[in-house]
What does this fold into?
Amino acid sequence: MWLVATIVALAACASPQTTQDTDPTTATTTAASTTVAAARSDFPASGPVEPGTYHIPPSAWNVAGITMTMPEGWETQYGAPGAIKHSDQLGELGFYFVTVDAIYSDPCEGEGELIEVGPNVDDLANALLEQPHTVATGPVDTTLGGLAAKRIELTVPEDLDPAACRMGEHLQVWYSPPADKYFVLLGDGQASAYILDVKGERQVFTTQYRDGATAHDIAEMQTIIESISIDS
It folds into this structure.
């Protein structure tokens, strides 16, 4: 998004008359289209992700095309439009897009009853806030990829009894049939669920990092998030 702002600002300095005659919406759309056209289309289904800017088409995971810029050192899994770093290590962190229509009635039990939630952003946000056995806070009004979003923060409660849960200290929050993927909130994880409306459909974007993740890696993930644009 900073690139678009810079282009517009430079145009204003070079030619005030041109800026006055230009529709800002058209200028922004043109800049975004140029970025998509220049992006790579070979985002891998699994394995290391080469540094670069990628455009990922709609899929079972994402309802619209996504463009994002990836640094070195990340990999992807399960065909998800997202990436992970330091997989299965104490410094693990990652993110991905997914569609969510139902959450587990008891994330401690997992693999149990799924509760269907309504189709709106608020429906899912409220359902996550009311889900038992998690510490959920928010929603926080924010943006993702240039679109309005609500963010819910999720952690495992400190007093959770691992012996009582199917996955021990971890919680199974939701399952997405289209992607055939469930989301596991790690016992030492700090997760965020961004919920937004994309062309009339609900989209979820999830991030999570473990307690051992470094400040550098967390900041790097934030840079990736800030590079995201969503086709609209």
Q: What stands out?
A: Residues 1-31 have pLDDT under 50 and may be disordered. Helices lie at 2-14, 16-21, 24-38, 121-130, 215-227.
